[in-house]
Amino acid sequence: MPAAQPSASQLAGAQAKRAQLNREAVLSATPVRLLTMLYDRLMLDLTRAEDAQVGENWPVASENLLHAQAIVDELTTSLNVTAWDGADGLLAIYTYVSNALIGANIHRDVARTRESIVLLEPLRQAWHEAAGALPAPQTAPSAEGYRGVA
């Protein structure tokens, strides 16, 4: 007997639940975790865009490139260039990639998308390694004990 297909309302409910869980994950994430989440999503968007460009699915490619641009813009605006010596170099990479993504979208240029992936993937890996090297965040005790456990 074949399995019953989920109804449209069941699918909508599952999508709403997933969206809520994603919102909660973002709201409860540490700044370092948010950064790695942004990089992970950026690379997912770029991979999807590249696949769509290769398949000449231009609407999907454009949607993913625009989302990737928004993430690069967020990374750019949140970068404190006075905090460390390498920040100017990272800002230059973000600016270059932002322009490359605009060109990739306008000119349907998969090579620019691929170049952005090649430039950003080592940064994603480095941020993940740096995040993994940090000590686990400590939680302040409440009146009920740590995380509500007495």
Automatic annotation (TrEMBL):
Keyword Kinase appears in the UniProt entry: no
Protein localization: Cytoplasm, Cytosol
Chief location bin: cytoplasm
Similarity section: Belongs to the FliS family.
Transmembrane segment boundaries: none
InterPro entries per the UniProt record, alphabetical: FliS (IPR003713), FliS_sf (IPR036584)
Protein name: Flagellar export chaperone FliS
NCBIfam families, sorted: fliS
Organism: Cryobacterium lactosi
Keyword field: Bacterial flagellum biogenesis, Cell projection, Chaperone, Cilium, Cytoplasm, Flagellum
